[in-house]
Structures are given as C-alpha cells and as structure tokens.
Amino acid sequence: MSRTALLKPTLQRLESDFQALSQFVDSSFTGHTRQVLSEPYLASRAWIRQTMIEAGLEVHQDAAGNTIGLLKGSGNGPALATGSHTDTVLSGGRFDGVIGVLGAIELVRTLRESGTVLERDLYVIDFLGEEPNEFGVSCVGSRSLTGAITSEFFDSSNAHGATLGAQLESVGYSPSAMLSNKWPAGSLHAFVELHIEQGPVLERTGTQIGVVTAIAGIERVVATFLGRADHAGTTSMADRRDALAAAAEAILVVEQIGCTGEHSVATVGSIEVEPGAMNVVPSSARMWTEMRSPSAEWLGTARRNVLDQLTELAERRDIGVDLSWLNDQDPVPTATSVQDVIAAASDDLGYSWRAMPSGAGHDAAHMALLAPTGMIFVPSLDGRSHCPEEWTDFEDVGVGVHALAATLLSLDGDRT
Ligand code: GLV
Ligand code: MN
Ligand code: MN
Fold first, then answer.
1. Of all atoms in ligand 1, which is nearest to the CA of residue 97?
2. What does the alpha-carbon distance between residue 95 and residue 107 come to, in Å, rounded to a whole number?
3. Which residues make up the environment of ion ligand 2, defined by Cβ < 5 Å?
C-alpha cells in the first residue's frame, strides 16, 4: 500500500469529534453559535487542547490565544503548518473552520498510527476568533501571529462602547503581548488550510476538491446616518429627517454596487436603529456593510462609489452620514507552488479537483504573509454556509483530510 493510501482518515472518529465539539454552543440561539470569547467558545478550547494532546501533539496557547499543537519532525528546517478556526458566526453551522482543525487532528492520528514520521515539524493551529466579532475585527489570532495586528485594532469598539482590547484583557489575553507575537520570517515552509467551500460550485460540478487560487479581499464600513427623532404621527413626510429611510436607500445602493463585477459581492448584514420605536421617526441608523472581490481594482472603485453615493443621498435627504472604514483585507493569491502540490496530491489519490477563488475570508489570507500558502475546499451541501443548515457529508470531509495529508507529506519532502 502507498504511503498516502495509509493516511486515509477514520470517518467515525471525525464524526464523533464534530459531534463532541458541537455540544459547546450558546443554546439561546438557533443553529450553532460559538462566538469568540463567549463562554462556550472558551470551554470548547479546553476540549480542543485535550483532543490535540490525546492525538499526540505538544500543545501550548500563544499570546493571542491561538491553540497550537506541535508534532515534532525527525529533521530540521522550516516547519509545516495547518489549521483553521472553531468560532462561529451567530446561528451558524458546525463545519466552517471546524473541519480545518478537527481534520488536522485526525491527520496527526493517521500519521502516527501509520508510523509516518515527517522530517519537518508540523504545527496544527486553532486560530483565535476568525469570524468578525462585535468590534468588527476578524482573524484576531492569525493577524497577531503574522504581525498584521496593530494597536488600533484593540481600540475598535462595539455598540456599547466597550473596546476589543478591554474585552481581550477581561478573559486573560494581553493586547501588548499580541503585538509582538509574530513568527519569524522563514520559520514556515508552507501553510495549508482545509475548509468547506461555503458555496455551490463543487457540488454543482460534482467535484471533490477545490484548489483555491485566491482569497477575496474585503472592504468593511459602518455607515451611520444621523437624522432627527420626531413624532411619527404629527411630523409630515416633507418635514422629517428619517435616518432609517436614508439607510434603506443606501442598502439598495450597496446591493447595486455588488452586482457590478465577476465574483464580487456587497452586503449590508446588520443595522441598528435609534430610538427604535414604531411611533418615532428614526434619529440614527448604523449600517454594517461589506464588499468583497478577488480584484483590488474593483474593491477600490466600489469603495469610492459607496462614499460618493451615500454622501449624495444623505445630502439630498438633509441627513448626516459618517463612514467609519474598518480593517480592510487585500485580495490574496495563494502560492502557485502549493496549488500545484494540492492538485498533484488529489490526482494521486484519484480525487477530482478544480481551481477556484474563495469568496469567504480565511486565516490563510493572513498566513500568506508568512509562508507559501494554499487552501483545500470540500463541497458544501446546497452551497449553504453561515447558517444552521451548513453541512458537508463525512465522506467529503474524509476526502479533504486525506488530500490535506497527501499535500503535507509531499511538502515535507519538498527540499527546494
Ligand atoms: C468568514 O467566514 C467570512 O468570510 O466572513
Ligand atoms: Mn465563517
Ligand atoms: Mn471559516
């Protein structure tokens, strides 16, 4: 039997790990809610740590709260790394991110059981808080590990005026230590993240593996419209300065902008209205907005269009508008060298594959600053994700873990 054939994961073990992790959720929401820094999230990470230890990893938590398991290699030289995240969006699913962490742990078990010893060290990382949190910051752990976090991130505030820095301190993390948590250049030979596709392409084309070519860039902005609270019965339509009506028009502007480019999208995902009563004209509307594209040029144009068109409509309605741009993320091409290894590993194992961009953001986009980086996608049922219906069949999870194992084995032997 070939070395890679021996690295086939055990599906029952994977399934039971998914089941165990999915118990750590906030049951006051539908679906799977394990938001970063929440109680279920912190409790789940003790379980992840223990599961990593039982799989044979030496585990530590770094200054940014990343849980890092090390499988020592027999030689030296730059290490390999894989992993993803285990936080979820509100009312999300149980595969997003989780497959990249639990899949990597299962891979370590198969390596050890098959007597396969890598020459390079292998790191398995559960990155802290990949999803955008209530402070509007995503990928906290991978940004810290790659030196992309700055003190401004810790000043980001939530709807109640609390800052991310204070929140991190309250659960025992040190923002200042996070600023000097960067791994040295050259410490990694490659990073590979296994993830669900979160879209319909693989399922629709009957393809087993997606070889990710690029990760979309993201521009995020909080647009706050400021009008005037007035009596909703006595203030004529001509006399009102309705912040929510302005935001409603702005939402359609953003939707239109999203319709203008290939693989490009724009969304208003959340809105906060004050004072928030049926019989009061809204005085303010705060609109959480993002635009995504693999094209930096499209993102630049979209940003200017949002600025111009929201300013114009606010002026026309005699409404104030404040645009607060959050941390943006440039589009990131993955390394062609790693894409080639993933494609060759899939061919060797007899798995069908296609090259495709990712519309979702990932820790891999930050790890690409540190090392040649690639991503492996597996199909999502009906293309659904960020919702309770998110699902990937365990046979497909197994295919992804197997392809990841073969990819890492090949990268281990890569001495160029
Ligand atoms: C993360 O899942 C993102 O793409 O927002
Ligand atoms: Mn997600
Ligand atoms: Mn994810």
1. 2
2. 17
3. 96
